Amino acid sequence: MDFRLVVTDMDGTLLNSEGNIPEAFWPLLDRLRDNDVAFAPASGRQLATLQSQFGRAGEPMSYIAENGTVVVHAGDVISLTPLSPDAVHAIIDAARAADVDMGVVVCRPERAFVERNDEAFRAEASKYYFSLTEVDDLYAEVNDEVIKVAVFTFEDAETVAAPLLRQAAPEDKVVVSGKHWVDIMDQSADKGRALTTLCDAMGIPVSASVAFGDYLNDMELLQAAGTSYAMANAHPDIAAIADRSAPSNTEDGVLMVLDQMLNED
Is pLDDT at 265 greater than 70 in this prediction? Predict the structure, then answer.
């Protein structure tokens, strides 16, 4: 298989059951580079979080962060997709007024903001937002640089929170990014468009990309990639549209597939 770029989701895909990058990833990254294959994570996670996780990479990395609203290549931000301030205000209002217990994270490229300070919510938010600041009023942090609003619920995100948030932001993209998370972005933003932007910057065709994912926010990424893999633990809708299946993240499925692909070449 001829491929030049590997793009993988993080949670439920590359990360293991403990939420860590498998130790065997690092020598595999070296092998990819030795074969002139680039690697980029594509995640709903914050850019600062991804940069921290891949601190061992040893050279400038490419990143698709915040579900495609931030794209970085060779150390430079090459794409930002902001969300309108009016939409951000509407989402904050809806979460505050809802009977459903929800916590809101307002995301700007360099930092995320929360106004909830209870331990249970902060523990969840801190997993995904390395650069996180508590403020008295989220309204004060809304400007033209907000790229995403992430909403956490202790209930089921897909059936409970997402419908309420779609009513609050009908013109924007509302995606379920995990069992308890919903992300709201501008309608033009998704991981698939970010992949195309990254490939253009690298000077390679999108057909030369391989992508791995497991959840609904990976839909456009897998549809755009030259070859797509759904993890064995993937949401049924993701499994249905992927070209192929990979073993689950708990079995280091991404690493298993890439090792086989490198051996074939």
Answer: no
d(CA 214, CA 137): 34
Q: Write out the DSSP string of 144-157.
A: TT--EEEEEESS-I
Task: Mark which of 152, 185, 218 sits at the end of a domain.
Answer: 185
Alpha-carbon Rg for the chain, nearest whole angstrom, is 18
Q: What is the DSSP letter of 14?
A: I
| Structural domain for 179, as ranges | 85-185
Phi, psi of 148 (to 5 degrees): -165, 150
Q: Which tens digit of pLDDT belongs to each residue from 186-227?
A: 999 999 999 999 999 999 999 999 999 999 999 999 999 999
Residue 263 in tokens: 């051996």
What is the rounded distance in angstroms from the CA atom of residue 188 to the CA atom of residue 101? 28
Measuring CA to CA, how many Å separate 70 from each of 46, 48, 143, 188?
Answer: 9, 11, 16, 12
> Six-digit token pair at 260?
């086989």
